[in-house]
Amino acid sequence: IVLTQSPGTLSLSPGERATLSCRASQSVSSSYLAWYQKKPGQAPRLLIYGASNRATGIPDRFSGGGSGTDFTLTISRLEPEDSAVYYCHQYGSSAPWTFGQGTKVEI
Amino acid sequence: EVQLVESGGDLIQPGGSLRLSCAVSGLTATTNYMSWVRQAPGKGLEWVSVRYNGGKTYYADSVKGRFTISTDSSTNTLLLQMSSLRVEDTAVYYCVRGGGNYYAGYFDYWGQGILVTVSS
């Protein structure tokens, strides 16, 4: 399954809302879709799993939604520390499991 | 607290071999689904391999036949044996808990990553 993320880059101001899109080339079984945050020099951090479930310790500013082939990650009130690249990942198919190419959020 | 600590990264010539290790604490590598994920310089994330808790393994097409994932239960370590290395294998390799096409197939615990550089 190929995941296509858009936009490539999102430039916003603190306090604004960010909406990131992840589109799959075929339906993602059981909404097995996750989102990760990746900052330079750091390991990726799991934000969302099962399309809409926040991982432990993730602020409620982060929310996920969607099903089938269209998924979104929303950051409701951007903070400077949210500057990062965000990746979606599907684990609903047989191997190989795939990531999107990433969306860079600049604040 | 779960900790995953990779080691073994190096500068290696094309065609060479290298073994990465991931020291696992806070969980048992052999009873979890454990994966390797990599990120080439300036590129996105790429899943490389998974070892299921029953021992079954899967590989990305790009490394199939060249990489082998395994665990050492005596030291609670995840291993990745890499051979016939190519320039395009250059990446930061992450040891990760997770993988598989089931409800918990996401990657929740990550190591800090280790750099493998394949170059002549």
For the structure shown, list the relevant keywords.
heterodimer, A: 107 residues, mainly beta, 7-stranded mixed sheet, 4-stranded antiparallel sheet, 11 strands, globular, B: 120 residues, 0% helix
The separation of the N and C termini of chain B measures 40 Å
**Count of alpha/pi helices of chain A:** 0
By DSSP, the count of extended strands of chain A is 11
> How many helical elements of chain B?
0
Q: What form of chain A results from the Cα inertia axes?
A: globular
Please characterize this protein's 3D structure.
The complex is a heterodimer of chains A (107) and B (120). Chain A has strands at 3-6, 9-11, 18-24, 33-38, 45-49, 53-54, 62-67, 70-75, 84-90, 98-99, 103-106. With 107 residues, chain A is mainly beta. In chain A, strands 2, 4, 5, 6, 9, 10 and 11 form a seven-stranded mixed beta sheet that branches. In chain A, strands 1-3-8-7 form a four-stranded antiparallel beta sheet, with no helix packed on it. In chain A, strand 9 (84-90) and strand 10 (98-99) form a beta hairpin. The radius of gyration of chain A is 13 Å and the shape is globular. The N and C termini of chain A lie far apart (31 Å). By secondary structure, chain B is mainly beta. Chain B has no helices and eleven strands. In chain B, strands 2, 4, 5, 6, 9, 10 and 11 form a seven-stranded mixed beta sheet that branches. In chain B, strands 1-3-8-7 form a four-stranded antiparallel beta sheet, with no helix packed on it. At the A-B interface, strand 4, strand 5 and strand 10 of A face strand 5 of B.
Summarize this entry quickly:
With 107 residues, chain A is an all-beta fold. Helices cover 0% and strands 49% of the residues of chain A. In chain A, the strands form two sheets. In chain A, strands 2, 4, 5, 6, 9, 10 and 11 form a seven-stranded mixed beta sheet that branches.
